[in-house]
Structures are given as C-alpha cells and as structure tokens.
Amino acid sequence: MKQRKTYVKSIDAVFGKRDAAAEIRDLIEINWVEWRGERLALGPALGDVVGLSIERESISWALLGPRGPIASATVDVPLFPLDGEPASAETLRQIVAAALRDAGDAVAPGPLAGVGVAWPGPIDLDGNPYPVDWTGFDFGPAPGVDLRELILAAIDEAGLKVQDAGGDRGPAATLVNEADADLLYEARLGVGSGIGDLLGVKIGGGISLSLIHGGQLVRGHAGRAGGVEHIKVRYEDFALPDKWANVRELDELDVCSCNGSNCIARFATGKRIIDQLRDYDDVGATYNERGRKIEAEFQKDVVSAVFGRAGRLVGQALLGPVLAFDPERIVVSAFPRSSNLLQGIRTSLTDGTRVHLIPEDIVFAGRFRERTAAGAGWLVVEQTVIPRMEGAVTGTAKLRRFELPHFLRSQVPADEHVVSGFAALQSTNGDRDLIVD
What we know:
- The chain is an alpha/beta fold.
- It folds into two domains: 2-190 and 371-391, Nucleotidyltransferase, domain 5 (2-Layer Sandwich), CATH 3.30.420; 198-360, Nucleotidyltransferase, domain 5, CATH 3.30.420.40.
- The protein is 33% helix and 16% strand.
- The chain contains twelve helices and 14 strands.
- A five-stranded mixed β-sheet has the order 5-4-3-6-7, with helices on both faces.
- α3 crosses α5, α6 (178-189) packs across α11 (371-390) and α9 (301-325) packs across α10.
- The two termini are 33 Å apart.
C-alpha cells in the first residue's frame, strides 16, 4: 500500500506539474506519451481516453492528454429537457454516437484506453445507474433499457474500438455521477488541484454534492453519497422585499419530487432559481437559453436578490455535511451562476458558525464548459491508464530498467537490470524539443 501511494503521488508530479520534462521524455521513449501537433497526448502503448458528459439539454466530449483536455466540444440538444418530453433510448444512442464520432476526428488511429461517461444521476457501486423508477428522477432511458449497453452500442456505431474491452484492462465504458466527475476535474486539473479534502456542490437542473477525501472520491456504501436534495431548510426565514412583485414566493414553487415541502431542491436548483423570476418566464425558451439570459443580466437588483437568497439556502443545507466532513475547500459548480449565489453560500457557512473555512475557501469551479466530460475521462486515466503503467513493472514483456520513466525507475532496485514492461520501445519524437504547455 505504501508503494502504491508513492506511485500515485509521482504520477501526479508527471501529469500535474510543469517541471517534469525529463520524465515526459522518458514516457515518449516507451510510447506512453506522444506529440500530436503541439500538444502532448497519451501514446499508442496506452491509447486515447475520451470523456462524455450527458446532460439534460446538451452533450459534451473531451479528449484527454497527460496534462488534461487536448480537444473538446459541446452540442446543445434536448435529451431530457426540464419542460419537455425526454429522448427515447434510440435517440439517446444516436446522439451519443454522433458525439463520439465528433471526438473520433481528434483521436489517433488504434483502440482507445476507455470512455468515461458522466451521467446526471446516482451510479451504483457496480457502475450502473439506479433505475429511473427507483430514484424518482425525471430523466434517463425508459425502464428496462441498460444504459451501459446503450453506450457500448454507440461506441460501436461511432466506429471506435476500446482495448481489451471487458478484460483485465477495465470496462469499455466507465460511468460516473456528473457531480463526482465535475469535482474530480477540479481536484486534478482545476481550482482544487493539490488539495486532498474537497467538497463539491453542483447546482443545475438538480442539486448534488460530491466529496474527495484524502485525494479519493467518496461513493458511500451504495454509491449514493452526496444526495443532498432532500435536506430540509427553513425557507420562511428568507423573504424578499415586497417591491419585487415579479418574484414568486417560495411556497408557490412545486414541491420536491419526494413530496417534501421544504427540501433544498424545491428552492435552489438552477431551474427553481429561474422559476422564481417571473420576468424570465418564457415557456418557448429552453432551460439553457433562459439560464444564459439570466447570467447576462445578473447585475439587475431582482436577479441578484434571488441568487443571493438561493445561495443562503444552499449554505444552510450544507452546514451539516460541511461540519461533518471538514473540507479544506468547497467548489461550487452552477448554471446559471452569479457572484451573489456564491456570496450567499459563503454568508450562511461562515457567518457565526463552527465551520473551519473562510469565505475565500468557497470558490466557483472554472468556466471550462467541458470540465464534466474531462472529469469522467480522467477517472479512466486513474482507473485504467495508471494501473496499466504500474503493470509495466510486473508484466510479461521485457524492459530495461534505465528505459523506465524516472518515477517508475525509482521503485525498481538498482541491481535489477531487466524488469517487465511494454515491448514498444521505439522513439517517435525523442529528438524533438520538449514544449510543455
């Protein structure tokens, strides 16, 4: 176990910092990393990793390299609209396949290492979504449709292959809850980089929490850790001035899906923030369109007030989890988002409470739109690519010790001149000047 921890720490040094030129040159020498244009990509000995994020009204993809995304895109498409009919399983498969074909244009020839898929709902410990009729959520393929099989069919339809799918190199498709994927990206590549204890809050069509403790995602005993939607709040404490008649009262909003009248999900999801603003009640517009319009007009007093109230309610709901988990930083991902939302959360959590945080420890996630897709892909890097690197020490092909990258070489005794590893040793770009972006 001690060696494993040392190894992962040294992987972070190679993949996560800018001072690892020698190690990256070694990786290039054994085809674990290669140049693709002016960017570093995972090499043919490993295979590319693609991350997908399936959202209510959009789908995103990201191609991962050693330092994070090297290509990405988002397409707005009504998969599970908040105010419309959900896509059928057939339509969902076609849309996923189209996104994978788009990503495939940036992928190198050869099989992928894996595909990570962020899904807007809880994922059980076997890596499968909970049934729609069990969770009560209003999205997902029809009952009886296997989402993993649907994604595998889309991968095949897109003309992509995955190395040893279903074998000892991991599944072809790795499913992860979208909030977990979001926080994993920020923990490894974003605003939480280098911090071992993080709490993430994702506010969108729903609201959910994710947690990284000691550098690892916390899933819970059934994969449902982070389900904060049904935490009760004292919403009656947050009345707005009567001068804003175009703001709905909180008790006018629909009750929670669990029929609870004071669950946080009733008042502070992105959809409920929009629903409170009567001036933006355009039934012909999608949730994304209305959200972007509100973000553009965040300086209006009435918009600021609604966001601020939602933030204070979210902070109230999070007080218990924050006190219990004691994170070093809280990362808030929100759509639509406003500085008043963040300020409201900061006020509730740090004003007169026992939370060991200052307001500056509660931050917004980055604005990179494909970060959730990138986080899903990075999970494949950690679960499939890095173990495959570890396998270079105990595999079947022979590899000379001095040809190992430094972070592996340091774990092999100096008198062990021949160790096991990958056989592909030819350098493709070994003489090229190293440019680390």
